Structures are given as structure tokens and as C-alpha cells.
């Protein structure tokens, strides 16, 4: 009999490879128009990227119904027991054996290994992206104490998906899209003294569909099917657009040895992909992040250097779309679907902590010895939400929505992490350093997901570095 603390190992069968080629040309300089000084930068970017991905195919066994069952332990109940641990299907969450092997057996009770093969080339999905971009930036000194910053950028982004087919397929198809993106920024900097400045800025940015070329979590991919519904969705996809507002102040202290910055900002994102009121995918989602940030970086004394800061955010899902509920069939009435506002609307945006803090200090008791330490804090992070609303109907077909009595919030808790470093300059050209991360061996998580998954952070680790200058 096993107690808790064990996790089932999922077979991560995906593989991929990427090729990229980029050419960037930059031109910069200064000129004057009367008493006004200009510091400009112009540039172009040409880039191409190709990514292919496939899966390692695990061959299993045929069950009594003639259906192939993969031998991964997923059909075992309970999943984690003495046998599944011995096979490597399960392991200790906090004390895993890094030398465990994973073998694809012919069945969950067999000791005969089965083949693991790559997808055929025609089964691999390929994503291609081309970017043609040009930008211009000008920093305009109106008077010594007042600087106006202006910038524009235009991108033409072409993306193509070639979905992989089943092994029996002989031909494939392509889904393509081209987006023209225009973004700009403007900022004003006022310098009341030589070592202080106040500023305000506004900027736009855009995330085109398939910008991650289907790698990682792609919320706006082009899809991999060519059904009429999929093609209609492809045509309706919108570019996700963000507007950013920021005001702040900067100061340099101790003969410009220590820099302090304070900023307040807001970012608004539109056209996020959500379910619309007709149970179709629409691009009506909105997010908003408001925050303040304080940072410091530099020398407090000749023997003490610090950097870090504190950030407080109010990340909010302004419009999360809708959620479909199904009212079961009753008598002559067929099952019906009803749309209700998403549980996400008005809640804290996922993957974004409200509070974070960083402090690192380096102490140099001698010219060759340095002792450093850091503290890092992140508050609770949400992965997703779910409630228990339901829908019913009566024999007359009248649908009633039963309000939620509870909301499930999938989160990871706040955490502190402490690191340390010891460095010694053997000579002016040779330096030896030793770093210890997560000194207290804290158990914490770095990312939560909409489902029950979470990413656990590494425990205590140490490494040494020997650096040479020549």
C-alpha cells in the first residue's frame, strides 16, 4: 500500500526543430534643424523561420475490441503502485530518481520492449513565417531640459501552416494568412535637474495570429483543418492589439552611482480569442493590467552594490467571453445549449502575480573578494477558474440556469527564494565564483495551468564558474 507523494509520468512524445534566418540593417546618427537637435535611428528587418514538429509513436497492444492500447500505465488503477513505480510509470514527486529508464513495453504486464518510432515526414506539421519590417525613431531635444521621443514601425507578417497527415495520406494542404501591423510610440521627458527626470509615454503593439508559429501555448493559431467552419474562423481571426500608458520619474544619486526609478502604468489588450454569445469563437476578449514599479540599481558605497525592485499589479480579465452549458434532454425536448458569461470575466488574469520583489546585494570587503546574496518574492499566481453553474429544462422546453454555488480557482502559492554567491579574483584575468540557488531548498511552483497541472521549481542547486579575461 502506497501513501501520497507519487506522480504518474506522462509520455512527452512531441519533438520539433526550427530553422531561422534574419537580416537586420540599422542606420543611426544626429542632425539639427535650427536649434533643435535630432538623434535618429532607422532600420529594416527581413526574417524567415520554419518549424516542424512531430511525435514519437509508441506502439502498444490490441485489446479484446481490436483497439490499440498504449502501454504507459494509463489504464492501471490505481496508477501509482509497486509495479508502475518499478516500470518508471510513477515516481516520487519530491525525490525522483534521475536515472530511471522509460521503456515502451508491449503491454502493461509484459516485459517485452516495443518499438518507439518517429512520425513519417508527411505526418509532421510545418509552420513557416516571414517578416518584412521597417522602423524609424527620433529623439528630439527641444530645449536641454525637454526631449520628445517619437517612433513608428511597420511589419508585414506572413504565416503558413502545413498540417501533418495520417500515414495513409498522400497529399496535404496549406493554411496561410498575411497581416500588416502598424505601431507607434510617443514620449516626453522633462529634466528639472541634471540628475532627475520625469517622463510620460504612450505606445502600441500587436501580436499577429500564429506569431509563435504554433510552438508553446498559442492562443491565436491558424488551426490545422480545412473544414468550412475552420476556414471561416481563419478569415475572422483578428490581430491582438495592446495599448500602453506610462508615467514615471528617475533619479541618479551619489554622483550618479545609484539609479532610482518609479513608474505607474496601464496596458490594455483587445481582440483576445474567446467564446462569443453564439457559441462561436470570437475576438472580443479584453485584458487590463495596471501597476506601479520601483527599481534601484547601483553602488551605495564603494564596497556595497545593490539592485532590485518591487512591482504591484492589478491584472484583470475585463471581458472573458461566454461559457456553454448543456441542458439535458427531457421527454420530447432535445438537449439544448445556453450561453452564460464566462467565469473568467472580472477575475485576476492568469500567470500574473500581483506582487513581486527582488533584492540582490554584493559586498566587497576587499578588492578581490565579493559576497553576494539575493531574496526573491512572488505572490500567488492563478492558472484558471471554473464554477459549477448548470442548466436544466422542463418538458415544455423552458431552460433554467442554476447559479454557481462555488468557484474553483487553480493557483500556486506565494513563495520566497534566497540565492547566494561567493566570488574571488585570483588575478586581474582570472575569477572564480560559486553560486547556490534556492539556499533553503524551498518547494515552490513557477507556473499554474487552467487544468490541474503546475510547474515545480528546482530545489537547492550549486555550481562553480571559472572565468578568464584575455
CATH topology: Maltoporin, Chain A
Radius of gyration: 28 Å
- The SS-based structural class is mainly beta
- What fraction, in percent, of the residue positions are helical? under 10%
The CATH class is identified as Mainly Beta
- Major sheet: size, sense and barrel closure? 16 strands, antiparallel
Order of helices and strands: EEEEEHEEEEEEHEEEEEEEEEEEEEEEEE
- The average pLDDT is 89
Strand content: over 45%
The number of domains is 1
Rounded to the nearest angstrom, the distance between the terminal CA atoms is: 61 Å
- Which regions are unreliable across 5 or more consecutive residues at pLDDT < 50? none
Number of discrete helical segments: 2
Question: What form results from the Cα inertia axes?
Answer: globular
Structure summary, number of beta strands = 28
CATH architecture: Beta Barrel
What's the name of the CATH homologous superfamily? TonB-dependent receptor, beta-barrel domain
Q: SSE layout and pairings?
A:
Elements: E1 6-8, E2 14-33, E3 36-58, E4 61-62, E5 68-69, H1 82-86, E6 90-92, E7 116-118, E8 125-143, E9 146-162, E10 175-193, E11 196-207, H2 228-236, E12 240-253, E13 258-275, E14 281-301, E15 304-319, E16 322-327, E17 336-341, E18 355-363, E19 369-378, E20 381-387, E21 390-393, E22 399-402, E23 407-412, E24 415-425, E25 430-437, E26 445-448, E27 454-456, E28 461-468
Antiparallel strand pairs: 1-6, 2-3, 3-7, 3-8, 4-5, 8-9, 9-10, 10-11, 11-12, 12-13, 13-14, 14-15, 15-18, 16-17, 18-19, 19-24, 20-23, 21-22, 24-25, 25-28, 26-27
Amino acid at each position: 500500500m502506497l501513501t501520497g507523494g507519487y506522480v504518474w509520468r506522462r509520455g512527452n512524445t512531441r519533438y520539433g526543430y526550427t530553422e531561422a534566418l534574419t537580416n537586420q540593417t540599422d542606420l543611426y546618427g544626429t542632425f539639427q534643424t535650427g536649434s533643435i537637435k535630432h538623434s535618429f535611428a532607422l532600420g529594416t528587418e527581413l526574417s524567415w523561420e520554419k518549424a516542424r514538429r512531430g511525435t514519437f509513436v509508441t506502439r502498444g497492444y490490441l485489446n479484446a475490441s481490436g483497439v490499440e492500447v498504449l502501454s504507459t500505465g494509463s489504464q492501471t488503477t490505481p496508477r501509482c503502485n509497486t509495479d508502475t513505480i518499478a516500470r518508471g510509470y510513477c515516481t516520487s514527486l519530491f525525490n525522483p530518481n534521475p536515472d530511471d529508464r522509460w521503456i515502451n513495453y508491449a503491454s502493461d504486464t509484459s516485459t517485452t520492449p516495443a518499438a518507439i518510432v518517429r512520425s513519417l515526414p508527411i505526418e509532421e506539421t510545418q509552420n513557416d513565417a516571414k517578416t518584412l519590417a521597417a522602423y524609424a525613431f527620433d529623439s528630439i531635444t527641444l530645449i536641454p531640459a525637454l526631449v520628445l521621443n517619437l517612433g513608428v514601425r511597420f511589419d508585414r507578417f506572413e504565416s503558413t501552416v502545413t498540417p501533418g497527415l495520417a500515414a495513409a495520406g498522400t497529399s496535404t494542404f496549406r493554411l496561410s494568412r498575411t497581416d500588416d501591423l502598424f505601431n507607434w510610440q510617443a514620449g516626453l521627458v522633462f529634466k528639472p535637474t541634471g540628475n532627475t527626470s520625469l517622463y510620460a509615454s504612450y505606445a502600441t503593439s500587436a501580436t499577429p495570429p500564429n506569431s509563435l508559429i504554433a510552438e508553446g501555448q498559442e492562443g491565436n493559431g491558424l488551426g490545422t483543418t480545412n473544414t468550412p467552419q475552420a476556414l471561416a474562423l481563419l478569415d475572422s481571426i483578428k490581430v491582438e492589439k495592446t495599448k500602453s500608458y506610462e508615467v514615471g520619474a528617475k533619479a541618479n544619486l551619489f554622483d550618479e552611482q545609484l539609479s532610482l526609478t518609479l513608474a505607474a502604468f496601464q496596458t490594455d489588450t483587445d481582440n483576445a480569442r474567446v467564446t462569443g454569445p453564439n457559441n462561436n469563437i470570437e475576438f472580443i476578449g479584453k485584458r487590463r493590467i495596471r501597476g506601479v514599479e520601483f527599481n534601484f540599481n547601483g553602488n551605495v558605497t564603494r564596497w556595497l552594490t545593490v539592485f532590485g525592485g518591487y512591482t504591484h499589479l492589478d491584472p484583470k480579465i475585463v471581458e472573458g467571453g461566454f461559457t456553454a452549458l448543456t441542458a439535458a434532454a427531457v421527454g420530447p425536448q432535445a438537449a439544448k445549449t445556453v450561453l452564460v458569461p464566462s467565469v473568467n470575466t472580472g477575475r485576476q488574469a492568469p500567470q500574473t502575480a500581483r506582487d513581486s520583489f527582488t533584492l540582490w546585494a554584493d559586498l566587497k570587503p576587499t578588492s578581490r573578494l565579493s559576497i553576494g546574496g539575493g531574496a526573491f518574492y512572488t505572490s500567488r499566481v492563478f492558472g484558471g477558474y471554473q464554477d459549477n453553474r448548470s442548466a436544466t429544462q422542463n418538458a415544455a422546453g423552458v431552460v433554467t440556469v442554476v447559479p454557481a454555488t462555488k468557484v474553483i480557482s487553480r493557483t500556486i502559492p506565494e513563495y520566497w527564494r534566497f540565492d547566494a554567491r561567493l566570488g574571488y579574483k585570483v588575478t586581474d584575468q582570472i575569477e572564480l565564483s560559486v553560486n547556490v540557488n534556492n539556499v533553503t531548498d524551498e518547494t515552490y511552483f513557477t507556473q499554474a495551468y487552467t487544468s490541474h497541472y503546475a510547474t515545480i521549481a528546482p530545489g537547492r542547486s550549486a555550481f562553480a564558474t571559472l572565468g578568464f579575461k584575455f
